Amino acid sequence: MAEICLSNINKVYGDSFHAIRNLTFDIKDGEFLVFVGPSGCGKSTALRMIAGLESISGGELRIGDRLVNHVDPKDRDIAMVFQSYALYPHKTVRENIAFPLRMAKLPKPEIDRRVEEAARILELTPHLDRKPGRLSGGQRQRVAMGRAIVRKPAAFLMDEPLSNLDAKLRVQMRAEISRLQKELGVTTVYVTHDQIEAMTMGDRVAVLKGGVLQQIDTPKNLYDRPINAFVAAFIGSPSMTLYEASLSGEELRLGSQTIRLPDEVFAARPCLRSNGGRRVVVGIRPEDMDDASIAPASAEIQAAVTLVEGLGAETMVHLAIDAPWVDAGDPDAIAEIGQQRSAVGRFSPKTAVQIGDRARVALNASNLHFFDPETRTSIW
């Protein structure tokens, strides 16, 4: 096992495209770290630089106590699991798992021992003499994991390993990978575009945008204390909706409506008082909205219902709030009223609201998020 240290890592391609900018943080020994962000944010490029599959344009990368900027991938003591399983179809499960050990010319008894151990951990023992074509997608992914495990590397690097699986298998496999990583205690770097995967699997999550690290923290802190509007809107499903608003004393003006903020908002965010009389960007999460006729709250707004999605245990209600919405990814984008994006409320399944209703929405004002309208950084 090993610590991985990135210090001012940059990646610039030949066409002057700056894919990664000054990436700096440490991945602790035995930690499960997840890179997440929208397509093209640089997360796979960062992983490939750690693996040695992409050259580093600037900065230093250390695995353990070794500087590995110019060390070949095979000499970095890491094991990669890719999006495609990359199994040999003509070889059995046993032969696929044993392949890297045979290439390393380990003695046959040691190879057999490691393969049997990996198969036991991954519950593949009954399938050792089958070929990949006779396995399910989840089983094939476990074989790919087994091939990485047997090497006993200093770190695992995983590039969207679950993206080819159906929804049910993804849930099952992410639980298995998390359990396996905890059992083995191996430093793991995992790339995904799925923020639910990131939040459920990572000890810490690194959120990237445009090649720049936005925030690296525990899943809980990313959700509760996002550093800026981009992280706030990216983390959470359905995502937080952002609106332009104004604050005067203890009253928040949101479009044509006024919300009185409770004292705990200002206790948690003392800098918010200095924003009195100024514009702010306010963020509302789906779970902080409900049907006010069955879930009374201290704050209430009205909104037109544009769509109702019944999911059994909850109902997703799309709401048109008469305030200019804000694009979390573009600091200059504020839409005019009438072009607003619907917010999504996670309503009780007992709600009776229908499309076209003017719904009374119970709002948990204590959980609202506030951002500077210029920098989009959180106000605390």
UniProtKB/TrEMBL annotation:
Membrane topology: Peripheral membrane protein
A Pfam entry, by short name: ABC_tran
Segments forming domain ABC transporter: 4-235
Main location: membrane
Subcellular location: Cell inner membrane
Family as reported in the entry's similarity comment: Belongs to the ABC transporter superfamily.
Protein name in UniProt: Sn-glycerol-3-phosphate ABC transporter ATP-binding protein UgpC
